[in-house]
Structures are given as structure tokens and as C-alpha cells.
Amino acid sequence: MGCEIARSRRHRDNHHKIYAMIPQIALLGAGIFVRTQYIPRLRELADFAVLKTIWSRSEESARAAAELVRDFAPEVDCKWGDEGLEYIAQDPSIHGVAVVLAGQIQVDVSLRMIKAGKHVIQEKPAAESTREAESALLDYRASLNSLPHLPIWAVAENYRFEPAFAEARKLIEAVGDLMNIQVIVEGSMNNTNPYFSSPWRRKLYGGFILDMGVHYIAGLRMVAGSEVATVSAAARHVDASLPPPDNLCAQFKLANGCPGILVITISSPSPRLFWRFVGSKGTVQVERGVVGKQHGYTVLFYPSGGSCQSSFHPFCGVTEELKAFFHDIDISQIEGRAYNADSRSSFVEAARDVAVLEAMLESSEKDGAPVAVKAFF
Fold this sequence. Notes:
Blueprint: H1 2-21, E1 24-28, H2 32-44, E2 50-56, H3 59-67, E3 77-80, H4 81-90, E4 96-99, H5 106-115, E5 119-123, H6 130-142, E6 153-156, H7 163-172, E7 178-188, H8 199-203, H9 208-224, E8 228-236, E9 247-254, E10 259-265, E11 267-279, E12 282-291, E13 294-303, E14 309-314, H10 317-335, H11 347-365, E15 371-372
Parallel strand pairs: 1-2, 1-4, 2-3, 4-5, 5-6, 7-10
Antiparallel strand pairs: 7-11, 8-9, 8-15, 9-10, 11-12, 12-13, 13-14
Helix pairs in contact: 5-6, 6-11, 7-9, 9-11
């Protein structure tokens, strides 16, 4: 009996020790993406992080969001307004913060939390412009002088965490020399889409082109394994119900010399999305679609002289991205020092996506003149 009690006590103590290391997080925001993506994913990942606090601009929306998480976070607290933000910043029990707010204020709020010593995962885009991103990075790195360790700053774009793009990146090694790349985006942003009336997205420089486009650039850069060096583009505004521009056609050249095209139509009667990488020994294509009622990506590999190989991967990027963020917080806490977090969600990676689209929009304003893409290090 004594041995059983001792074992039980050891198990209990280990359980408390493990639980104590689970990151406690705050969720800033209560909008559509929080309700449809973050809350369901946090429910799935309840063993990886404890949702301690939800914040929103108004008390009403904060309390409404808190009720949606009671089943897996029964003790969740809710805060609102600037006073609530300051409370979260000063709460030592909160290790990480998810910033899911309007794109125009995310950088300021993220830096506020970072300077309070919190790890941050911020929704995309990384910034409204490369100028803002560059200034934010300088501010972030300067924090090293006043903090015992540099908190993680992740940007949630999720495409880099989709298994389909990881598989496509591996397959690229088998296609020989890349000869050209095609990225075709025919979106379905109309009045049936929940984000159609989003005020902050409509006020972004580039509108939905920037908000949605960072995903497509992330997929392109990840699979190609080379940076976009120069671009030449033309943009149009066709649908008056959408902010300008709603169409973008661009030529680009990678740093390794490979040329490509990117075509984005925000609202199309025939939605389609694919990335195609044509090489001297084969072709890799990633396309979005539905298989067996599951939404995801199909990876197609056409080897030279062989039959097509196909695999399907259901969407899981948001889940995997959050899981990686919580893991990085865990390791950072255990080691008690600055930690090299998963580079796929680094602020620098996300800033590079913004830089490509900004260069394309700038080129369009200059009647298609070639523009060099700003480099971030």
C-alpha cells in the first residue's frame, strides 16, 4: 500500500509539474477569425496551452467570446479596452499572446506585448508596408537591451505549415532545373464571404490583394526555395463592390534566375487556386480543392517519362502553426533564455511576403516598370 501511495504522489507531483509548464495565453480579438478558427483550434490544443484571458475592444464582445470557450477553458477571464490590455501586459502568469486584430493596429499591439515580455503570435499581414515592418524589426531587436530574453514574435500565415507545401518543397529537388513558375489565384470574395465587409481589410494598402496575397507568396517562396528578386506588374479595378485593386497580373524573377507569373483575381465566377513549378525533369503542382468533403491541397508530381503521382492533404496549417508556437514557448521557458523559434512563422519571413506584393503594387503604379523586392534579414 505504501508503494502505491508513493507512486500516486509521484504521479500527482509530475502532473502538476508538467501542467505548470504548459503556456498560459491571452487571446486578443473576438472577430470572425477568432470565432471560426482560433477558438476551435485552441479547443483541439487544450493540452498544449491554457487559454487564460480573452480581450476585445468592448466588454460585450469580450464576454460573448469568453462564453464560447467555457467548455475547454472554464476559468477564462475576459478583459476589454486599454485598461484590459495593460492588465494583460502586466500579468506575469500570461506567457504568450495571440494578436488577432485589425491589420492596422496589430504591429503596435504586438510590440506593446513584446516589451512587456510576452511571446506573440500575430495574424497576417506582418505589416501594412515594408517601411512599417522595417521599423518594427528595429524596435523588436532593440528590446534585447531591456529584456532578459527576446520574446518570440511569430506571424500566423499558416501556409508554411501546410503539409502539402512541405511535400512540394521536397519534390522540387527531383524536377531538375526550374524553368518557370505559374501561380494562378481566382478567388471568391463576394457578398457571401464573411470577410467581404471587413472594414480594416478594405482600408489596407492593396486591400484584399495584400491581405489574401501574402498566403500565395508564402506558398511560392517556400516551394521554390528562392527569393523573389524583381517584379513587373499591372493591376486593375473591375468590381466596384471591392476595394482597388481587385486584379493583379505580375511577372517575377527569382534570385536563382527562374522566371514566373502571378495572377490574382479577387472575385471570380470560377474560383481556382494553384501553384505550378515546371522543371527540366518534371513538374510539381499544388492545387486547392475538396476531396471526400474535406477541404485541402492536392500535390501532383509529373516526373519526366513517368506517370503522375498524387496525394491529398486536408487543411491543418492553423493547428500546426499554433502547436509550434506553444512548443517554442515551452522550450523558451524551460531553457530560460532566448530561443530560436520555428523560422516558418518568423516576422522576417512574413515581412518578405509583404515586400513581394508591395513591389508588385509599386510596379503597377509605375506602368509596369521593374521593381526590386526589398530584402529583409
